[in-house]
Amino acid sequence: RTIVYPDGEDIRLTQALKIFQNFNKSKAVLLGRKDIILKNIKESGIKSLETIDIIDPEFSVDLDKYKKILIDIFKNKGKELTEEIAESMTKQNNYYAALIVKAEDAHCGISGSLSST
Questions:
Q1: Residue 22 has what pLDDT?
Q2: DSSP letters along 3-17, please?
């Protein structure tokens, strides 16, 4: 399974992942700034990134893919969303995480430690 974490910059998350890796080999997708997440991973004592992906939505290669999904969601509800607003929304961790799940690129998402649930 693949789990996306919008609060990827929270050191408590990497500390929990260190423990979690001992029990489960699910892939974790941490969203946020790569330098902060890598620092937290090192401080948490995680030795292998084999089951961890780091994505900064701001610079994601899949930004356009998820932006289109968001625009389509709004269109299906009879609402219009400009490209500019859709891109701004998609670059936000919580939206990006939800769109990853919607695209079936992750099985679920877990948040709430830094962002509101």
A1: 81
A2: EEETTTT-HHHHHHH
Return phi, psi of residue 102, to 5°. Answer: -60, -40
| Tokens coding 12 | 């408590």
Hey, how many other C-beta atoms are within 10 angstroms of the C-beta on 48?
Answer: 8
pTM: 0.91
Q: What is the pLDDT of residues 54-90, one digit of tens each?
A: 999 999 999 999 999 999 999 999 999 999 999 999 9
Q: List all residues 6 or more positions away from 99 whose beta carbon is below 8 Å from its beta carbon.
A: 66, 69, 70, 90
Is residue 1 classed as helix, strand or coil in its secondary structure? coil
The helix (H) or strand (E) run that includes residue 96 is helix 93-102
Distance CA 101, CA 11 (A): 23
